[in-house]
Design a protein that fits this description.
The structure is a homodimer. By secondary structure, chain A is α+β, with helices and mostly antiparallel strands. Chain A is 32% helix and 27% strand. In chain A, the strands form four sheets. A seven-stranded antiparallel sheet of chain A has the order 15-14-13-12-11-17-16. The first copy, chain A, has a five-stranded mixed sheet with strand order 4-3-9-7-8. In chain A, strands 1-2-5 form a three-stranded mixed sheet. The first copy, chain A, is globular.
Chain lengths: 371, 371
């Protein structure tokens, strides 16, 4: 068991925002909330997935909505906890651990606040190994965790419980429209799982990875070396291009931030131009009309000077950034997973283009069978 | 206790469609479902509101969505029952009676099917004394019944429970967006009430009134007299105009059928032109740029020849109709009610114009106090 410190909040949220691949929300508010939890004497304790007992009840929590809205509309702070309480009520049982649904700036912090309030540990891992825009895109659901009971709650105290849904996509569809009606941002609790199941399907150690990335960036900034290099050394990713954002087209539709970025290469990359399409998260990187990197791999932007992750709600004309491509988790590379998180799941008629994996503990052999 | 017969289904659905004031859905499918219930040996028993015991648990049920969609998309048939079961589960108690939320073609039949399936009686009355487009527009909620727990369900088996909402308007907003995501049509169960409370706030005897209207129309058609006159004699309403529909503007937006009708007078009314604005139901009748009748009074169209109610999803160019204005129930005339169902609640900057009331049992003196 590892206890989160105030310093960890900074490194984890920065590292998680790198893993957020443009999405996962802005960490600023979430980080303040988590800090308040610590300062009020609460503990945020983290356990490794293999410390989960078979009969633990793990519930997946986080914030839902367009990060553009989350950045402008202050949450009340207990939306996710209200949602968790509704799931517990539907199950007639208290959760014994919280699992993040994704890594990302905001959604690395939200589960910490819930875990601290509920007085239960947070599992070191998540369901995406990055951020993705939709609820069904977790390894939890991909490998068969039931999508119900789930709940969402908003700052007015509105609470909705999904007791039965046709499948994870229907949960996404219904929860998304409720979130839009709630003003574009809500807390969600979903996918209750036994500890035994969670252990098998969670992408492990991503909180630790986020912290390592954050610390590597800190160290690089302190030593005036390249933050991007530091991130690549921890993640076995690649730098695709260094350049300047020359255009951002962004619209908030159907509860998502959708659009594209255009980046012109600078320095060694002068003369090149790339485009990145996004839906909350960066999805496909194009150059010369060809796809060069796609989901589920992570396409992430880091400001060249300070190593700050550029999320899709903040990126703007003139930002100078390194464009990195980081390999996704092996659990996201199976056929079963690629059907849900590959480019076709986002409407691109493309095969996934994937980097060789980063060192991980799970192997395809040990994958659980879908229920 | 009164047991509904197959013949009653015809007269009640026709009479309820008159009370539906253009809305309340098309009765055709609902009537077939109710008939199937009877033919399979189930009973639809109706009790008067004053037969409710103090500790009865009454749940309000019906279909939600744009009638345009309900007319095209076949329901599975047990959506409302699934929603009822979710409300019962949230309460930890079985309902002992069903109360319709409105009178209207479809929504006079849906509660019968539920009552028959659940094996509990239907209360002779409803929460509107007519149809209205939104959930908070019932006397139940206007006079203080809590809006939760409520539930909606669709034909795929998706089930949402509203355990807590800020108020009835938020229930409407959230349930409406879920209904839209469900394809525009859902079964709803809401506003659980004690028998004691329901007795005070229900608009009584409207099923009987619907049957009386339906029988009067039948009799008029048989005897080749004017169906409109027969309806007026039962409802103490007024004929406003006889004419021909010359234009219908209708769009399906935000889950409602919205638009307006233009009707030119014929015969004695030749040379006159009226417009009726609607949102599922007819809301305001205009002539010479002036409002002549408004919600909560009932503006309803009856085909001149056959006395068939013309609902807003069916009315079309060339229909020949009598335009009737029928007085709303006294419970809809209090200040408290007019804030929720008067013209301003629908965005019209108008004071309500109301006909003298039809004979009713309740008086303003005996109104319950809002919680």
């Amino acid at each position: 068991v590892w206890c989160i410190t105030e310093r960890d909040l900074g490194t984890i949220s920065a590292g998680a925002a790198v893993l957020g691949a443009g999405g996962g929300g802005n960490p600023y508010i979430g980080r303040l909330r988590a800090r308040e939890s610590l300062r009020s004497g609460k503990q945020i304790s983290v356990i490794a997935p293999d410390e989960l007992a078979d009969d633990d009840l793990t519930v997946v929590c986080g914030a839902m909505g367009s990060p553009v809205i989350a950045f402008e509309k202050l949450p009340r702070g207990d939306e996710e906890l209200m949602a968790l309480r509704e799931v517990e009520r539907a199950l007639g049982r208290k959760a014994t651990a919280i699992a993040p649904f994704e890594m990302g700036g905001g959604n690395s912090m939200a589960p910490m606040v819930i875990a601290a309030s509920a007085g239960i540990p947070l599992v070191d891992g998540d369901g995406m190994g990055r951020a993705f825009p939709e609820l069904q895109m977790t390894t939890y659901m991909i490998y068969g965790a039931p999508p119900t009971p789930s709940a969402i709650a908003d700052e007015r105290g509105n609470r909705l419980v999904f007791n039965e849904v046709a499948d994870g996509r229907w949960l996404e569809r219904l929860a998304r429209s409720a979130t839009i009606s709630m003003g574009g941002h809500a807390g969600v609790a979903t996918t209750p799982m036994s500890g035994a199941f969670c252990r098998q399907v969670i992408i492990p150690n991503t909180l630790t990875l986020a912290r390592d990335i954050g610390e590597a960036i800190d160290e690089a900034v302190r030593s005036k070396s390249q933050p991007a290099d530091a991130v690549l050394s921890v993640t076995s990713g690649q730098r695709y291009l260094t350049g300047k954002v020359i255009d951002v087209e962004r619209r908030n539709t159907q509860g998502f931030a959708r659009g594209s970025l255009t980046i012109d290469g600078t320095g060694q990359d002068a003369g090149r131009r790339i485009r990145i399409d996004f839906q909350n998260e960066n999805l496909v990187l194009w150059e010369d009309g060809q796809p060069r990197a796609t989901v589920p791999d992570l396409i992430t932007l880091l400001t060249t000077e300070r190593g700050e992750p550029l999320t899709t709600e903040l990126v703007s004309y003139g930002c100078r950034a390194d464009v990195l491509v980081l390999p996704c988790a092996d659990l996201m590379k199976t056929e079963q997973a690629l059907r849900v998180v590959g480019p076709r799941a986002f409407g691109f008629d493309l095969d996934p283009m994937l980097l060789p994996g980063r060192p991980r503990t799970e192997t395809a052999d040990s994958l659980p069978v879908e229920d």
